[in-house]
Amino acid sequence: QSHLVESGGGLVQPGGSLRLSCTASRFTLDVYAIGWFRQAPGKEREGIACISSGGGKTNYAASVKGRFTISRDNAKNTVYLQMNSLEPEDTGVYYCATGVTFYSGPEGLEEATYNYWGQGTQVTVSS
Known about the structure:
Layout: E1 4-7, E2 10-12, E3 18-24, E4 33-39, E5 46-51, E6 58-60, E7 68-73, E8 78-83, E9 92-99, E10 114-117, E11 121-125
Parallel strand pairs: 2-11
Antiparallel strand pairs: 1-3, 3-8, 4-5, 4-9, 5-6, 7-8, 9-10, 9-11
């Protein structure tokens, strides 16, 4: 079955940057809204950003707004999450997911909006 694959995670010092990628191995992403989520140890999964199918609209959680940027290149079948000014609180497993509809409001950052998920990539922010 088709699935999503996240990449780009790793260990970075506070204040540093990482760029995550989300791709689909056996289908195209261009008709789907895409959400990025993260889960820190001992905490619930948190929606942090989403983007419309054409890339023209975005939605961010307050915890990352101004530091993270979601974008997509449909010609490369890839969605990106550029993470700048990283803090230890950003540590966690980051997931991407497909959705039928883009929402500018809270629904855009809720798990129930999304259907298919990747396995996640670990991001660790530490000195």
